[in-house]
Design brief:
The longest helix has 14 residues. The model has no long low-confidence stretch (mean pLDDT 94). The radius of gyration is 20 Å and the shape is elongated. The strands form 4 sheets. It has a 6-stranded antiparallel β-sheet. A 4-stranded antiparallel β-sheet has the order 1-6-7-8, with no helix packed on it. The chain has a 4-stranded antiparallel β-sheet with strand order 12-11-10-13. The protein is of the alpha+beta class. The chain has 3 helices and 16 strands. It starts with a strand and ends in an 8-residue tail after the last strand.
């Protein structure tokens, strides 16, 4: 009952640390997922696990994998992972499965309630927005449709005495060819930590949104009090 983790799976796990710390490898699944607050991420994997494996501290496990290269997981004992590599063996106790949030079915684009806006987002624009938001200490990031264009925007909720918006910034992404003349899909600034590459963005008027990086998909619920269609 041994599983060798591929480089691709280790890269996914390294990324998943941005979202949460508890993860379950489900028996016979060819995909893994992680849940962190209002965010769910999933990715396909090549490994097949002979039983459920429950990890309560992904940061800790990845720190071990940084020392133990090309790890092989021996899952012969219940609730114990024996990690093997280069003559080294390490016994690692699993977490309690009932305490680990997971999704029953793999989330996909077709499982979204609707797709109302689709656009492409480049890493260059992500980096620009990250820098501007950090400089201005803005708490929110959003995709907004206004005046026939779609923008990537950073802002706060402060207004002046004339009700005009104060500190904000925005980057033009594309023309707005949707049926919605004006919309705003708002996230906390922490969402930027999940945006690490070029991606396709799918926005929904139901505020469940997907960022598709090709080898993984991230679903994030927008701030419903600030978002509108």
């Amino acid at each position: 009952m041994e599983v060798k983790l591929s480089t691709e799976t280790l890269e996914v796990l390294n990324y998943f640390q941005r979202i949460g710390q508890m993860i379950k490898f489900k028996k016979d699944n060819d995909w893994i997922s992680i849940v962190g607050g209002e965010t769910i991420a999933s990715a396909d994997i090549s490994e097949e696990f002979p039983r459920d494996v429950n990890i309560y501290d992904l940061n800790e496990l990845m720190a071990i994998f940084n020392v133990v290269k090309e790890p092989i997981l021996d899952l012969s004992e219940d609730n114990i992972i024996t990690i093997k590599a280069d003559g080294l063996q390490l016994r690692y106790i699993e977490g309690e499965g009932s305490n680990i949030k997971s999704v029953k079915n793999k989330p996909t684009l077709t499982s979204m309630p609707s797709v109302d806006v689709k656009l492409s987002l480049t890493l260059e624009n992500i980096k620009k927005m990250n820098s501007l938001i950090s400089t201005l200490k803005l708490p929110y990031v959003a995709f907004v449709g206004e005046e026939g264009k779609i923008y990537f925007k950073g802002f706060n909720k402060n207004v002046d005495s004339d009700k005009n918006e104060m500190n904000s910034c925005k980057i033009l992404l594309c023309d707005n060819e949707t049926e919605f003349d004006n919309f705003a899909v708002v996230f906390s600034r922490e969402t930027l930590t999940y945006l690490t590459n070029d991606c396709e963005v799918y926005l929904s008027k139901h505020f469940i949104n997907m960022f598709d990086f090709g080898n993984r998909q991230v679903f994030i619920t927008a701030d419903k009090t600030l978002s509108s269609f």
